[in-house]
Amino acid sequence: MLTAAVDLADEIGIEALTIRKLADRLGVGAMTIYHHVPSKEAIIDGMVELVFAEIEKPPTDVDWKSAIRRRCISAREVLNRHPWAAPLMESRLSPGPANLSHHDAVVGTLRNGGLSIQMTAHAYAILDSFIYGFAFEEAVLPAGGGEGFAEIAEQIAAHFPADQYPHLAELTFEHVLKPGYSFGDSFEFGLDLIIEGLERAAQEE
Questions:
Q1: 167 within domain boundaries
Q2: How many domains would you assign to the chain?
Q3: Which residue pairs from 65-69 have beta carbons closer than 8 angstroms and sit at least 24 positions apart in sequence?
Q4: pLDDT tens for residues 129-182?
Q5: What's 59's DSSP letter?
Q6: What is the DSSP code (8-state) at residue 203?
Q7: pLDDT digits (tens, 9 = 90+) for 28-45
């Protein structure tokens, strides 16, 4: 049932997901769903659990920076597969074992890397804000900011005078509209800046 709910949300979005639509997808009556879960919120709790289970935990056989980097890249990939999930990942009041064990593994990686409790708290907040924010923006950008985005950007640029918005025009025409541009290319660049900055801050504590 939860897998079907995730698949349906991937197709139609979380707001459009209803008990009735999920029941139709499963070929059962809506009351059958209510025999297993009390509400849509309970279903969302389970869906978020499945998403957390897809994200790679930081590996334990590499240094903390490499481990955190792999986890963050995995998180973004998973959130791209489930574009409805980013705003919900940290909002659950009844987190399940996949959610809790993932958080525990990330905190453990940072602490084992020598970061203080305070720096660990800063690191986790900053890293996840970056991941979720980036994934959300990719979800709402035309064409996901990937292939096809340049064509849409060109259409948008046609509606603003370049002489009135020279800096925006320069960025658009000299970078965004160049072959091979992808908004997503900025993710790993930004991630590395954050991780290196955290390392420096931890060393200066």
A1: no
A2: 1
A3: 65/113, 65/195, 65/199, 67/109, 67/113, 68/106, 68/109, 68/110, 68/113, 68/123, 68/127, 68/195, 69/191, 69/192, 69/195
A4: 999 999 999 888 875 555 666 677 777 777 788 889 899 888 888 888 887 888
A5: P
A6: H
A7: 988 888 888 888 999 999
Exposed e or buried b for every residue in 58-81, given b needs 16+ CB within 10 A?
A: beeeeebeebbbebbbbbbebbbe
Q: Is residue 171 part of a domain?
A: no
Per-residue pLDDT reduced to its tens digit, 50-83: 999 999 999 999 999 999 999 999 999 999 999 9
Domain containing residue 104: CATH number = 1.10.357.10
Range of the domain at 90: 44-141+183-204
Amino acid (one-letter) located at 52: F
